[in-house]
Write a structure and sequence with these properties.
Blueprint (H helix, E strand, L loop, with lengths): L1 E11 L1 H8 L4 E13 L2 E2 L6 E8 L8 E3 L2 E5 L15 H6 L2 H10 L19 E12 L2 E13 H7 L2
Parallel strand pairs: 1-8, 4-6
Antiparallel strand pairs: 1-2, 2-3, 2-4, 5-6, 7-8
Length: about 160
């Protein structure tokens, strides 16, 4: 079976993040890295392809779509029955050991959504990472496609240069 793995790197401004959180589409340039796998052989070394991305934040799930010059990617959504876990006070948090803090996070996961892209100050992490799997038929053969999407803020990118 042939497998196409596409790694997407996208960086957003704070304005882009605010628009996505407000359910508005965002159009940006990003980089994709497509790699083919077939019977132990890959197309490595892969070449980065700069392309256009339309990011959406629609409630209804939509698979990643390929366009002539890029991709349309709908962000993951919070489940309808999701209720945020009450936060611990600073004093309660400080009383926990490092192991207890890690366990607390493991036991209180936050589903992925556009909110993950918000600044830390606003309750986000300035980061969103997710995968999507699909299959298509090409030349009478099934091809598995794995999209790995990583979205960060441009501030994170700029700080990484220091």
């Amino acid at each position: 079976m042939k497998i196409l793995s596409v790694f997407h790197n996208i960086y957003l401004t704070q304005e882009d993040v605010a628009n996505l959180v407000d359910m508005q589409d965002v159009h940006v340039i990003g980089a994709s890295l497509p790699v083919w796998f077939y019977k132990g052989t890959t197309s490595e070394p892969a070449e980065e392809v700069f392309c256009k991305y339309t990011l959406t934040n629609n409630k209804e799930h939509q698979p990643i779509k390929t366009e002539k010059d890029g991709y349309i990617i709908n962000l993951p959504q919070l489940p309808e029955d999701y209720t945020p876990t009450p936060r611990l006070t600073d004093d309660e948090w400080r009383e926990l050991s490092a192991i207890d803090q890690m366990e607390w996070y493991d036991n209180h996961p936050t589903p992925m959504s556009a909110n993950n892209l918000k600044s830390v100050r606003d309750g986000g992490g300035e980061y969103l990472h997710f995968k999507e799997y699909s299959k298509i038929k090409r030349n009478n053969k099934v091809v598995t496609i794995i999209h790995v999407v990583e979205i960060r803020t441009k501030e994170w990118l700029m700080n990484s240069f220091n």
